[in-house]
Design brief:
The complex is a heterotrimer.
Chain A: H1 3-23, H2 26-64, H3 67-82, H4 85-98, H5 105-131, H6 134-142, H7 147-177, H8 189-200, H9 203-233
Chain B: H1 5-44, H2 49-64, H3 67-77, H4 87-112, H5 116-124, H6 129-159, H7 171-182, H8 186-219
Helix pairs in contact in B: 1-4, 1-6, 1-7, 1-8, 2-4, 3-4, 4-6, 6-8, 7-8
Chain C: E1 2-11, E2 14-24, E3 29-33, H1 40-47, E4 55-60, E5 63-64, E6 67-70, E7 73-76, H2 79-86, E8 89-92, H3 104-114, H4 120-133, H5 149-161, E9 167-171, H6 179-195, E10 199-203, H7 207-213, E11 216-221, E12 224-229, H8 231-236, H9 241-253
Parallel strand pairs in C: 3-10, 3-11, 8-9, 9-10
Antiparallel strand pairs in C: 1-2, 1-4, 4-5, 6-7, 11-12
Helix pairs in contact in C: 3-4, 3-5, 4-5, 5-6
The chains are: A mainly alpha, B mainly alpha, C alpha/beta.
Bound molecules: adenosine-5'-diphosphate and magnesium ion.
Chain lengths: 242, 220, 254
């Protein structure tokens, strides 16, 4: 989405939010929704951190690991991409305790959502690394660099830039999937919306407001990733091998 | 023993029955997504700035917010306007609308990949914009994006468990009920996971096959 | 210094290098010429260990490059051994292959610091020296994207030299450049030929430069050295028909 339309959307969202909040008797909703928003943000941040770590480990293991590790990484990626996020969440929340491992709901949430997005992220990382041209690898060989050194200093920094936009999309998918945690008793934004809906029956106002809050966080993520991309490229159009 | 085969075989037929609902929601939702997605894509390319701008805003809004809330919205809010849908319809509608926004991006990429020459040739033949779209552009734009659409079919399929939140008796809801009745979640939920895994793997394989076929056709 | 002994390279059914023998003395400057597809690039890439060898052995400074001695016989070299021999070799590529995310200076210090283990200050001092030598003392903080092709190629030369190789390989280093930028790169090569005691193998289409600079010219044809000799002989009195044809075609083209 071009920057201009982001700004336009943000302004419309903000204005609409204000209108709704004012005639909906916002003092009734705002505190609860804000608490829910904070929990949503915490899960998003925790999940994002886990996703990035899991994605890099899985991608590097799949690309450069010895056979058993490669196999393990492939399993992780396929299982978490192949089953649905809600199934994973419920599995951690309902099944794991019956196998003798009880995690807090918050732990289950971050673990399930982080690992789920991490599996998709692994493919992004792999794509980014494969996207760096062969010429760059050859230059590192001509300079007698070891493969780990070449990967760390030459290949990954270039791959990193190409990975930023797809990671932005994944973080938004992660944010969206955090709403599932309301189904395992965590009082996130979605949970609060449900709760207040049952208490006040101001259905339209509550769900509209909540959608706008999610939109706001999404736009923040988009802005953040744009900024990161600008910093990473240092203002110069690079990424192309020269 | 963690895994109880006897219980697993007991719940399997029930889950198989519920999977019909899951598949129905997937198919209906995806058809809606395909049709609505194309409409979104064409509206976004409209020369009228108001239409294209508004469509862009709506599409981005739907894409940036959680499907679960959208399901709640359709299920709980529409009745306030006198539109009462049963849970299955409300959920399927939400799935379809949500994924229509993804499909519209795919169509758009397909349409934008059509060389300018095709548009110019259509103009030279004095075809109307509607005919140009229907007979020249769309037939060329869609085949190359079939694999991308296929990916979203799989993605939509994997989000059908969200319908359990409004008590649609699809796979996940059924598994949860079985679990709470028998105080044993291990088998039903794991089986549901296995079901999704198998179908996703098959679908991705089919999709890769389609992609290969398409790329060989393209080379001819 | 460098010796190819019965080296063969195939891609599928295509034999690109056919039982090649080539001996290069220390500090000798060898120009490799020949039609496109004759295997010139492949020779350099084999020596840089960018390609696997199918048959034969390459020796660098008397040590087998792609094989190592084990129980009295030669076996295919492992990564560790490869890295210990290929430190003697540096290469400059047709398309520069600079690191786009690093400044000119860091392009030239990255490997010396992390591979040779030089202290940063020392590596930088040496890199600045080399960059000044190729006329880029004022571009240290620039990113490659902002340089002209000729400047990029001179950075690439400095970067390779910073690893203190004994053998330098140049693969059509001026082919990707606009004509007016060729001279500055050739000057840089001339200069380092004088300043350093390097063995050089260069694939080139600059016949004038080859004539003036090389000690020996090898004409490649279909994966073999078809004719070789001192430049005067190859350029003024080529003996074989293919060589004559190739040279007249190149001269006609300008
Ligand atoms: N990676 C490769 N796979 C298949 N064939 C190759 C590959 N690299 C080079 N070749 C072939 O090997 C032959 C020699 O290539 P090269 O050494 O690059 O020729 P030159 O540099 O003399 O133009 C050419 O016919 C080329 O097509
Ligand atoms: Mg070549």
């Amino acid at each position: 989405m071009p920057l201009k339309s982001i700004v336009v959307t943000a302004i419309i969202a903000f204005a609409a939010g204000l209108v709704f909040a004012s005639f909906a008797g916002y003092e009734l909703f705002i505190p609860g929704l804000l608490e829910g928003t904070w929990i949503t943000i915490k899960i998003t941040l925790g999940g994002a951190l886990l996703a990035v770590v899991a994605a890099f480990i899985a991608a590097l293991a799949k690309m450069y690991g010895p056979a058993p590790i490669r196999w393990l990484a492939t399993c992780y990626i396929e299982v978490f991409r192949g089953t649905s996020a809600l199934v994973q969440l419920f599995w951690l929340f309902f099944v794991l305790p019956q196998l003798g491992v009880t995690l807090s709901p918050m732990m289950s949430a971050i673990l399930a959502l982080g690992l789920n997005i991490g599996a998709y992220g692994a493919e992004v990382v792999r794509g980014g690394i494969n996207g760096v041209s062969r010429d760059q690898w050859e230059a590192t060989i001509a300079l007698n660099m070891s493969r780990p050194l070449a990967l760390r200093r030459i290949i990954l920094p270039q791959a990193f830039i190409a990975m930023i936009p797809p990671w932005g999309n994944l973080f938004i998918e992660l944010l969206k999937s955090t709403s599932l945690v309301s189904l395992i008793t965590i009082s996130d934004l979605t949970f609060r919306a449900q709760q207040m809906n049952q208490a006040t029956f101001r259905t339209l106002e509550i769900f509209t407001l909540v959608l706008l809050i999610y939109l706001g966080i999404s736009l923040l993520i988009t802005f953040g990733m744009r900024a990161l991309e600008r910093i990473a490229t240092g203002g110069i159009v690079r990424g192309r091998a020269s | 023993m963690f895994w109880d085969w006897e219980y697993a075989f007991e719940v399997l037929p029930v889950l198989a029955g519920a999977s019909i609902i899951t598949i129905q929601a997937t198919v209906l939702g995806f058809i809606l997504a395909l049709v609505l997605g194309l409409i979104f894509a064409i509206m976004r390319m409209s020369r009228n700035r108001a239409i294209s701008g508004a469509t862009t805003a709506v599409v981005e809004f739907i894409r940036s917010t959680p499907l679960l809330i959208q399901i709640f919205f359709i299920y709980f809010v529409l009745p306030e306007f006198g539109i009462v849908l049963d849970a299955f319809l409300a959920g399927t509608l939400a799935l379809g609308i949500h994924y229509a926004t993804y499909c519209s991006e795919v169509y758009r990429a397909g349409i934008e990949a059509i060389p300018r020459g095709q548009w110019e040739a259509a103009t030279a033949l004095n075809l109307s914009p509607t005919t140009t779209f229907r007979d020249i552009i769309i037939p060329q734009a869609i085949p190359p994006v079939v694999p991308a659409l296929g990916n979203y079919l799989v993605a939509l399929f994997k989000e059908t468990p969200l319908l359990s939140a409004i008590a649609v008796l699809e796979l996940m809801q059924t598994a949860k009920i079985l679990g709470s009745q028998n105080f044993r979640y291990i088998e039903p939920i794991t089986l549901v996971g296995g079901f999704f895994l198998i179908f996703s793997l098959i679908a991705s394989a089919a999709n890769r096959y389609a992609e290969r076929r398409l790329s060989t056709i393209g080379k001819r | 210094m460098v010796r190819f002994s019965g080296v063969t390279k195939r891609y599928g059914d295509l034999t690109v290098l056919d039982n090649l023998d080539l001996d290069v003395a220390p500090q000798e400057k060898v120009a490799i010429i020949g039609p496109s597809g004759s295997g010139k690039t492949t020779v350099l890439r084999m020596l840089m260990t960018l390609e696997r060898i199918d048959d034969g052995v390459i020796y660098v400074d008397g040590r087998p490059l792609t094989h190592m001695e084990s129980n009295g016989g030669l076996v295919r070299a492992n990564e560790k051994y490869l890295r210990s021999v290929r430190g003697d070799i540096g290469m400059v590529f047709q398309h520069f292959n600079l690191f786009p995310h690093m400044t000119v200076l860091r392009n030239c210090t990255e490997a010396p610091i992390n591979v040779l283990g030089l202290p940063k200050a020392q590596a930088e001092e040496r890199a600045v020296e080399l960059l000044e030598l190729v006329g880029l003392g004022d571009k240290l903080g620039e990113y490659p994207q902002r340089l002209s092709g000729g400047q990029k190629q001179r950075v690439a030369i400095a970067r390779a030299l910073a690893m203190r190789p004994k053998v330098m390989l140049f693969d059509e280093v001026t082919s990707a450049l606009d004509p007016e930028l060729v001279g500055e790169v050739l000057n840089a090569i001339r200069m380092l030929g004088k300043q350093f005691q390097l063995t050089m193998l260069m694939v080139t289409h600059q016949m004038g430069f080859a004539k003036e600079f090389a000690d020996r010219v090898c004409f490649f044809y279909e994966g073999k050295i078809h004719e070789e000799g001192p430049p005067e002989q190859i350029f003024n009195a080529p003996e074989r028909e293919r060589t004559q044809q190739f040279l007249s075609a190149v001269l006609e083209a300008g």
